[in-house]
Specification:
Elements lengths: L16 H5 L2 H12 L8 E3 L2 H8 L3 H13 L4 E3 L4 E3 L3 H5 L4 H12 L6 H12 L1 H10 L6
Antiparallel strand pairs: 1-3, 2-3
Helix pairs in contact: 2-4, 6-8, 7-8
Length: about 140
């Protein structure tokens, strides 16, 4: 799963009521984050804000407003301390399709720095992907039965 060169982005993005209300910078940032080379299919990954600004050719000042909008709308969560981003809906739409993908996703997650977002991610896996939840539990020393 981590080797995919693409991520599914629904065409419904453009008709979502939140997206319709966003300005162009916020829409562009959301699309960038969903398709960024830094993004992981499982929806949790490390991406420092300066990387985002550099990739978009924006100043940090320009990044601030749309970034805050995406946080406020629940599109994403971000741990400023370790630069980890979580897309709460990623697993709902892009759960691992087989055991090998779940193993790869769990290994990628294990490489992330400590963040409270990991606890939320595990809860999302339990809700949306039994395969991934099992791999995460085994990897973190809490095997599911």
């Amino acid at each position: 799963m981590s080797d995919f060169k693409y991520h599914r982005v629904s065409s419904r993005f453009w008709t979502d009521e939140k997206v319709i209300k966003w300005d162009d910078d916020t829409r562009l940032l959301a699309l960038y984050l969903m398709t960024s080379p830094h993004r992981r299919t499982e929806g949790i990954f490390r991406i420092p804000k300066p990387y985002i600004a550099a990739d978009l050719g924006w100043s940090m000042e320009r990044l601030a407003k749309p970034f805050a909008q995406l946080l406020n709308d629940g599109f994403m969560k971000y741990d400023e301390t370790v630069s980890v981003m979580l897309f709460p809906n990623a697993l709902k739409y892009n759960a691992p399709e087989n055991k090998n993908q779940a193993i790869a996703a769990a290994r990628a997650v294990a490489e992330l720095p400590e963040t409270p977002l990991l606890t939320e991610f595990v809860q999302l896996a339990e809700r949306y992907s039994e395969r991934l939840a099992k791999q995460l539990a085994e990897l973190f020393g809490n095997p599911q039965t």
